[in-house]
Design brief:
two-stranded antiparallel sheet, Na/Glc_symporter_sf, transmembrane, transport, 1% strand, transmembrane helix, 20 helices, glycoprotein, Sodium/glucose cotransporter
Length: 565
């Protein structure tokens, strides 16, 4: 196969369009910064909290509908050992956005936080919060990697462009326009990218459905033809794993900075809610084409195509089934349109991950810990350097593994088992403190590592009920172990926070053992209530005592002493 020159030209035009939009948005951000009375960092990271409703909906949807979303759904649907019932991404994302809109957006908006980690720093201080930021940063780096893997595989299949060149070019374009304008550039380029994703995918579907090498997908949905039915099944002994994957995707997304970056950039809580609910509907619609691509691939006689035998699954190329299907089951000009959808999806997610991680480092580590007196200009450079470092780290990881699902699952896994319970406790439970957070973090991390992960070849040291070899011969946990770990971590935070509060506030241990100083952090409210009560009583007695008899006055004074002691 020779280099696809027309396809390269189309991709070049697409990249120029995206870069041009990013430059225009960066100029817009500079104008807004001159008008705004706040600091420049808020303009860069949150677009001055004035993002347009429609743009907000587009950028939140585009953030979630990335390359991993499009290729991952197609891969799961086509995979003979999984099927469409395991292509879970669209429905859990609806849950993510509804929960985020109803419960998480309000406390974040009301307190005017800049990042997801701000409540941690306010409650726990800088040292512990720095440790909690680490898994969030790692998840963002893995997010960059999985989006680039999806694009690199697609471009190498359709354009015959070397895998490394595809990844490096795409990474550079995303880094450049993210550097230029921050959230403004990311949001406005997301609008173009989402339109491209929607149009391109739906243009390709009719050609795939009517190609001569595939049979009607309704016939192969529940019947064995060329492989197992593409709908797939969830056996009773697999229900725990299915539920675990569903909850992982539904709740794990609530612990991503990229989600709150869109929420906090909205001009009001109501707008933030509308953004979440509208994005949920878009995710459902945009998931349908990938399911259809996987279904067509599962209904194809690959021996009659230019691809030949063995099948993509037998060649261990299930992760690239979408570009392979476009290449061998559609006309060349249609396959080029399809790669535009993947490229748009990749760029829309990658820029979000870059800005998300830059926000966490610049705001919560550099500004709040390293240099509290840093100027706006200095912070702009810190953000830019952070974007470059994360981009390069994510790009480097793409050469270690070529599976989209590996980076997808591992990244979301960290958010679900470690960060989600921490975020729930710090936002909704006043009892939570540093001691509980440390124990919960340790419990979640240790249990997750010991539970193993077949995708990265880590054997389980803890074997939950139902642990056995899967259809591919890998030792797998079929019990909802991630959800169990998340619940254990959450309960550990609450239990040990309560115990520590009881121990130190009641003097069961000396204050010198209170390394996190929780007694003095929790006591100001109690002291304020006590002082207020004492002052009111003072006023009452000073007003009343002169008019009372000596005996009555003595009695009231005794009661006052007992009440205030």
């Amino acid at each position: 196969m020779s280099l696809n020159v027309p396809g390269l030209v189309v991709m070049a035009v697409f990249y120029v369009l995206i870069l041009g939009t990013g430059i225009w948005a960066s100029l817009r951000s500079k104008k807004e910064e001159r008008k705004c009375t706040g600091d420049g960092m808020e303009i860069t990271l949150l677009a001055g909290r004035k993002i347009n409703l429609l743009v907000g909906i587009f950028t939140l949807t585009a953030t979630w509908v990335g390359g991993g979303f499009i290729l991952g759904i197609a891969e799961a649907t086509y995979n003979p050992t999984l099927g469409a019932v395991w292509a879970l991404m669209p429905v859990p994302y609806v849950v993510t956005f509804f929960l985020g809109g109803f419960f998480f957006a309000k406390p974040m908006r009301e307190n005017k936080y800049v990042t997801m980690m701000d409540p941690f720093q306010q409650r726990y201080g800088n040292i512990l919060s720095s440790a909690l930021i680490f898994p969030a940063l790692v998840a963002d780096v893995l997010w960059v990697a999985r989006t680039l893997v999806s694009l690199g595989g697609t471009m190498s299949v359709i354009l015959d462009l070397p895998y490394a060149y595809s990844i490096i070019i795409s990474s550079l374009v995303a880094i450049i326009y993210t550097l230029l304008g921050g959230l403004y550039s990311v949001a406005y380029t997301d609008v173009i990218q989402l339109v491209l994703i929607f149009v391109s995918l739906w243009v390709c579907v009719p050609f795939l459905m009517t190609n001569p090498h595939s049979v009607d997908i309704s016939l192969t949905a529940y019947n064995y033809t060329f492989q197992n039915p593409w709908v797939g099944t969830v056996e009773l002994d697999e229900a725990g794993k299915w539920f675990d994957d569903f909850m992982l995707l539904a709740l794990g997304g609530l612990a991503y900075q990229a989600f709150y970056q869109r929420i906090l950039s909205s001009s009001s809580y109501t707008q933030a809610q509308v953004t979440c609910f509208a994005s949920a509907a878009f995710c459902l619609v945009l998931g349908i084409p990938s399911v259809l691509v996987g279904a067509v691939a599962a209904s194809t006689d690959w021996n009659s195509t230019g691809y030949g035998l063995p099948t993509p699954y037998e060649r261990d190329q299930a992760g690239a089934i979408l570009p392979i299907s476009l290449q061998y089951l559609t006309p060349p000009y249609v396959s080029v349109i399809g790669i535009g959808a993947v490229a748009g999806a990749v760029m829309s997610s990658m820029d979000s991950a870059l800005l998300s991680s830059a926000s966490l480092f610049s705001s919560n580590i550099y500004k709040n810990i390293i240099r509290k007196q840093a100027s706006d200009r200095e912070m702009q450079w810190v953000i830019r350097i952070s974007v470059v470092v994360v981009g390069l780290a994510g790009t480097g990881l793409t050469f270690l593994d070529s599976s989209v699902l590996v980076f997808w699952i591992v990244g979301v896994d960290m958010s679900y088992t470690i960060m989600f319970p921490q975020l729930v406790c710090v936002l909704f439970f006043k009892v939570s403190n540093c001691y509980g957070a440390v124990v919960g973090f340790a419990m979640g991390t240790i249990m997750r590592v010991l539970s193993g992960e077949p995708l990265i070849g880590l054997p389980p040291a803890i074997q939950f009920p139902g642990c056995r070899l899967d259809k591919e011969g890998k030792l797998t946990q079929f019990f909802p172990f991630r959800t169990t770990i998340m619940i254990v971590s959450l309960l550990s935070i609450l239990l040990f926070s309560w115990l520590a509060s009881i121990i130190f506030n009641n003097g069961l241990l000396s204050e010198k053992w209170d390394v996190f100083n929780i007694k003095h952090k929790q006591n100001p409210t109690a002291r304020a209530t006590h002082n207020k009560r004492t002052n009111c009583t003072h006023f009452f007695l000073l007003t009343l005592l002169p008019s009372l008899s000596l005996e009555t006055g003595s009695t009231l004074l005794s009661v006052f002493i007992c009440w205030t002691s």
